[in-house]
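May I ask for a protein sequence together with how it folds?
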Amino acid sequence: MMHSESAERDDPAIRIVIMGATSVIGLETARLCMRRGWRVGIAGRRTEPLEALRAEAPAQVETAVIDITQDDAPQRLAELAQRLGGMDIYLHCSGIGSQNPQLVPATEIATAETNAVGFVRMTAAAFGWFRSHGGGRLAAVSSIAGTKGLGAAPAYSATKRMQNTYLDALAQLARMERLPIRITDIRPGFVATALLDDGCRYPMLMRPERVAAQIVKALERGRRRTVIDRRYALMVFGWRLIPEWLWERLPIRNRRRTTIR
């Protein structure tokens, strides 16, 4: 793994900033990075869980309260990276999702503000930071939900598709400008989080710890894109083969409305 500004540092530890570290996936990924001896900058909206996580390895961890829907979030990210001693990897785990077939406006808009506007705000800020600090890896946890429009979760699936496309564009931009910035798009399937804690039975449900291990592996191996796991990779391949007229007729239903932050 290449370190930005490596010539100016004596500490060889990888430095990663995890936005949304208080989410289930972000939390487990942060813990795994800490066990690997990385220096970890953790950010989220709530102070208490951030400080609780920092207490597990105070010498390795820096914290910042950051709300990605606010205009000051990029500046707070830069301050966190500075306190960490730099940033080799930016990992975006922050997001919300809802099953909302009723199309409640507030729910759809909040999802777009976080998963689209907030996502662009932070990944663009991270790209800009890497552009001016010698490069790095920009990674984001999107979802297989971006493969097709899901009638039970319109804004969620649409914003995840947008994230996939935005990361593709950033990868091309880095190549166009010959910048040493590498992009990783991480697409999990069903994960045991609050989003799916609705009393329904979901196939191939994965534990967050397993997903975190796959995320770290993708970062260490420099993957451009990865679907977690192989079963979901096969499912996504099948989804892509379904013609539009048939997809629109599939009886996808939800029993309860659920939300994750």
